[in-house]
Design a protein that fits this description.
41% of the residues lie in helices and 13% in strands. It is of the alpha/beta class. The strands form four sheets. Strands 2-1-3-11-4 form a five-stranded mixed sheet, sandwiched between helices. The relative contact order is 0.15.
């Protein structure tokens, strides 16, 4: 980066408090000569013109990397691009994002943290490039997962490159030592899962002679129930009714079968009695403290539980395992995550022509190569990390780590993670195996890309009606007739309009 271009850099406080005039000036860092031609070799060809690219992105740390960060300088060297990073503290990112949208003068690239109404409206109004027609020319960007791409879309159209997260992330964290103590194999079916939960509750799995254990730990967080009802064959939020129309999950018989199972777990004491009021932050405690034997959540909880148990007792090795979903009446089914955490969108106010767009897409495509992923995720060997075989050992030097801070926010990991990993453990390896295997059994939500105006207005109220009724049914405060009455309340509170609108959107999307 040349000294004359340093003026484009913004420190955290300045970025957070920039006026609309300053934002307009920043947006003036036009991509008319930005980015690179497709492929890194052309980008770094001797004598190639160096492009310029402005990027607005959040920082979740207290400090931004300095202007002369060797990591940023290396990024500019490898991409042949002067990169103007416009940092915004994460706590004020939504406000700054909306102010910038309102100004009409946007930087070339913007990290979009979610499909907020403001982003949806701006995309529909033409503030960002629709990318579907261009992606075939970029091998990494074109390899996006179709389920995730659909989830991240607006009205079925791609307005940004998603920042990938593991789609098949969910799993069953289980006390491996308890299974071994009781001579039990890993459960694979719903019936086997029930038997393990019963044994963990009544057969003294920790061998202390006391009645002080139970099977599943749950909290007021809905995740475990949402996950398990998919095992029973319930759709992921929306499912087709056999005639091409979408119906909400709670109107299916599979959903009710799952509810009956949950109620049985509660009645028999196989789940903690206080789950409906337990704060989600307390969820790990019973598992780590040896009271509960099963957690149903993201599979990577297993490595966190393993670490917490080892922190309490360094000799407590080989206590934790992680399993896939349990096989139900429709086979192996897993509830996916949305598969992404925000998008990187290309603005039309700064990137004005198709030629400029293609250069920007070449830059984004290059960020997904192993060398760039490794740079922006891990830093530079000998500074932010040392290599140990196929793994890395990160530095603990805070000054060196500051050079890397926040740069992972512009990583997309499309089509996959290619950076060097930290040294693994048996539990980490198993988590990776489960998440990879899950990719073949995830059940997508066909309603994910559909943007409902009814839900925007009434979504929390509608969700609360069903979630409250589910909890009351599980704990025995409501019978099946009462649950059906709750569904009728859901319908009259806006649910019927919601279903009608979703189906109109779904029909238009299919056309």
């Amino acid at each position: 980066m040349h000294m004359g271009q340093r003026k484009h850099w913004k420190k955290a406080g300045r970025a957070a408090g920039a006026s609309l005039l300053t934002l307009a000036m920043l947006a003036g860092c036009s991509s008319s000569d930005s980015g690179t031609e497709a492929g890194g070799d052309t980008a770094n060809a001797a004598g190639a013109d160096k492009g310029k690219l402005s990027i607005m992105l959040p920082n979740f740390e207290a400090e931004n990397p300095p202007e002369n960060s060797p990591v940023i300088l290396k990024l500019e060297e490898l991409t042949n691009t002067d990169v103007d990073l416009q940092w915004v503290p994460s706590s004020s990112y939504d406000d700054k994002f909306n102010i910038t949208l309102a100004s009409g003068k946007l930087p070339d690239l913007m990290v979009v943290l979610g499909k907020s109404p403001s982003f949806i409206n701006a995309a529909r109004a033409g503030a960002f490039w629709e990318l579907d027609a261009y992606l075939a020319d970029y091998p990494n960007l074109n390899a996006m997962n179709e389920i995730v791409r659909n989830n991240a879309s607006i009205d079925g159209k791609t307005y940004g490159i998603y920042r990938a997260r593991e789609l098949g992330r969910n799993g069953v964290t289980i006390r491996k030592d308890w299974l071994e103590n009781l001579g039990l194999d890993d459960p694979k079916t719903l019936d086997e899962f029930y038997e393990v939960m019963r044994a963990f509750t009544f057969d003294d799995p920790d061998g202390n002679g006391k009645d002080d254990t139970y099977g599943l730990v749950a909290s007021k967080f809905n995740g475990p129930w949402d996950n398990m009802q998919i095992w029973f064959g319930a759709p992921n939020k929306w499912g087709e009714d056999g005639q091409g129309k979408l119906i909400p999950a709670h109107e299916t018989e599979a959903y009710m079968e799952a509810l009956r199972f949950f109620r049985k777990l509660y009645e028999e004491g196989l789940v903690n009695k206080d789950f409906a009021v337990m704060d989600a932050t307390k969820l790990p405690d019973p598992f780590v403290n040896g009271q509960a034997g099963v957690m149903i959540d993201v599979a990577d909880n297993a490595q966190r539980m393993d670490q917490k148990i080892l922190e309490k007792d360094p000799n407590a090795t080989d206590r934790v395992d992680v399993l896939q979903a349990m096989e139900g009446p429709d086979g192996l089914r897993d509830m996916p995550t949305s598969g992404y955490s925000g998008l990187i969108a290309v603005s039309k106010s700064s990137v004005k022509t198709e030629d400029e767009l293609k250069k920007v897409l070449s830059f984004l495509d290059q960020l997904n190569e192993a060398e760039l992923q490794d740079l922006l995720y891990n830093g530079i060997e000998g500074q932010q990390y040392e290599k140990k075989g196929e793994y890395i050992v990160p530095t603990t030097d805070k000054l060196l780590l500051r050079d890397l801070t926040g740069l992972n926010q512009i990583l997309m990991f499309v089509p996959e993670n290619r950076y060097l990993p930290i040294e693994t453990t048996p539990v980490r390896e198993k988590v990776a195996e489960v998440q990879i295997a899950n990719r073949d059994i995830v059940i997508p939500n066909p309603g994910e890309p559909l943007i409902s105006d009814v839900y925007a207005k009434k979504g929390p109220q509608l969700d609360n009606i069903i979630n409250d009724a589910r909890t009351k049914f599980i704990v025995g405060q409501m019978d099946e007739a009462g649950f059906q009455q709750a569904i009728q309340l859901w319908k009259t509170s806006g649910g019927e309009e919601y279903v009608q609108e979703i189906n109109e959107l779904y029909a238009a999307l299919k056309e």
